[in-house]
Amino acid sequence: MNGIPLQLPPPANLAMAYTPVAFRPAFDLMLQLDARFADIVRKAREPMIAQIKLAWWRDAFAAEPALRPKGEPLLQALGACGDIIPLSALEDLVSAWELLLGEGQWAAQDVEKHAALRGGAIFGSYVVWIGEACDISALSHQWALDALRLEFPSKLSVPNNQPLPALPKGRKLRPLSILAMSVRNVSGPRLIGHALTGW
Question: CA-to-CA distance for 3 and 167, rounded, in angstroms?
Fold first, then answer.
């Protein structure tokens, strides 16, 4: 499973710039892992092979740090993060992408569960790290759905007709609002303006 970490897109890098320094490596790693798993699903010619790859990651996460496979940069980064990222979040992220390994159009219930697991793993972990007692489940769920529409337009072409959740206020939550806004078809200048002002 060796591979060079994927370069995060500009909106994710912008979100990273507003992430508290203490949590930046862990948040970056979660987004890198999410991108890696999305890439596995995107390139899956045979669902069984992709399943094996994702199972490899699940086993690697569950192993004692000293027993994890060597040579995988993202696992090395996980070791450097210590125990800040809970195993449950890593497992949820793998499970989220495993749900989308079937051929053809994805089932609506699988997409919904994917969004809940993926959003909870990434957004939920961040909220815990910064110590904010707020419910971001609707925001994280919508982010995951909107991101999926952009990443896999042929698999999820139905537009979102539901009202969008409000973006969270406050600089500590700015990384999440940047990510959420970045998948809402806003312009680059508008996204930068939001990052600077919160509006």
Answer: 34
Q: Which residues contact 56 (CB under 8 A, 6 or more apart)?
A: 1
Determine if the pTM surpasses 0.90: yes
Distance between CA atoms of 76 and 183, rounded to whole angstroms? Answer: 29
E strand or H helix that includes residue 188: helix 188-197
Place of tokens 């192993």: 63
The position carrying tokens 């990273």 is 16
Q: What is the CA radius of gyration of the chain?
A: 16
pLDDT one-digit tens code per residue, 81-122: 989 999 999 999 999 999 999 777 888 899 999 999 999 999
35 Cβ neighbours under 8 A, 6+ residues apart: 6, 8
Q: Which residues contact 86 (CB under 8 A, 6 or more apart)?
A: 125
Which letter, b or e, does each residue of 107-142 get, where b requires 16 or more Cβ atoms within 10 Å of its Cβ?
Answer: eeeebeebbbbbbbbbbbbbbebbeeeeebeebbbb
- Listed by start position, the domains of the chain span 10-197
For residue 182 the two structure tokens come to 């970045």
59-78 pLDDT, tens digit per residue, is 999 999 999 999 999 999 99
